[in-house]
């Protein structure tokens, strides 16, 4: 049951995260040009409504369909999504998340049924008209069948949200959100649940607190600062660097091993998160669009123009509360678990959160050192679940090492593990993603690591590249 819930969550976040740039564009236009924005402009503000009600749901539906059935799945998902978009007066993000993948599943089953039954020369005719006919039917069905169901769901969700807000118990959401972050369900909660509700609130109020519930860097900052003061050994020495990456880079994953070294620190992040949400709620703070990654810089870019003081105060209070609770926990109830052991524990939990089973096969074992192949290397890919956070950080580190070694002609990219390009020759990924990387690109050499920021395999790989590319 747990694995099914996690799979569902990954599917939701997978539809939203690739389109975060579009959400940010919409948020910036909203923040700048609506009546209460920085530069009110009635003409430009006309972009806001069509982008939220048409563009963003279409992108979500296309991405969801593409995840299921490739290009054809994306196209039919967008066609069907027009049914729920036209059939409703509110932005249909949840409707798009439903009909996009569902429509793609239908066309995928149809294509499978017609396989080997189409005469030579008629393939294009059948492909195009089947997509058009089935898409048109699904759009009509979505308009009259799915829209009423989703509208009812939206209504009940609005009632639930209103109950939390009206009774001042929104801070209690930290009881679920902070532990979920360490279990790698943060993207599912943020982009699958909170973002759709937040966008509807922006339509009504011009801002939303829901974008801040998970993205607040304050709780994690407090824990990392506590390690700077009261930590021991490698954990203490590495914490200052983690502070910068977490707070300014927005890579919250960097502090998860520090929590796993002493799980009691969850009390600190929960209390800090609740304090931050209470402050945001009290001062009416809201963002105009999702802040991704959860960097203080992203929050400042997306915050509503009258909310800067409340934003900084909420982040500060969250960090202070988390810090004050974390320091005594570290001093008097700390364990001797090393950062490396915690990193391995984090990887095991991340594996479970991503629905990957332990396996003793070679594909699941970390590769020590460089890849085992021969020949010149021209393209290396760093792969993580979404292809945006950890892998981007690792790619930057390796690029610098390659440049320092004087190696040219090697392209280093970051990508989702589920869609590694076919021309990639070496894939660097977490050891728990090894099997998925192999399925995505079975021909590439793989280097499996446990820490994207400071993997010893990077130096070994650079030495191997020197031999192979200068031979």
Automatic annotation (TrEMBL):
Domain of life the protein comes from: Bacteria
GO molecular function, one term: protein-N(PI)-phosphohistidine-mannitol phosphotransferase system transmembrane transporter activity
Name listed for the protein in its UniProt record: PTS system mannitol-specific EIICB component
Catalytic activity: D-mannitol(out) + N(pros)-phospho-L-histidyl-[protein] = D-mannitol 1-phosphate(in) + L-histidyl-[protein]
One GO term of the biological process aspect: phosphoenolpyruvate-dependent sugar phosphotransferase system
Location of the protein in the cell: Cell membrane
Physiological role: The phosphoenolpyruvate-dependent sugar phosphotransferase system (sugar PTS), a major carbohydrate active transport system, catalyzes the phosphorylation of incoming sugar substrates concomitantly with their translocation across the cell membrane. The enzyme II CmtAB PTS system is involved in D-mannitol transport.
One Pfam match: PTS_EIIC
EC identifiers of the protein: 2.7.1.197
GO cellular component, one term: plasma membrane
Annotated TM spans: 20-39, 51-69, 75-107, 128-150, 264-288, 308-330
Ranges for domain PTS EIIC type-2: 8-339
Keywords: Cell membrane, Membrane, Phosphoprotein, Phosphotransferase system, Sugar transport, Transferase, Transmembrane, Transmembrane helix, Transport
Keyword Phosphoprotein: yes
Primary location recorded for the protein, binned into one broad class: membrane
Residue ranges occupied by any PTS EIIB type-2 domain in the UniProt entry: 378-471
Gene3D superfamilies to which the protein is assigned, alphabetical: 3.40.50.2300
The species this protein was found in: Schaedlerella arabinosiphila
Topology in membrane: Multi-pass membrane protein
Region (Disordered): 343-372
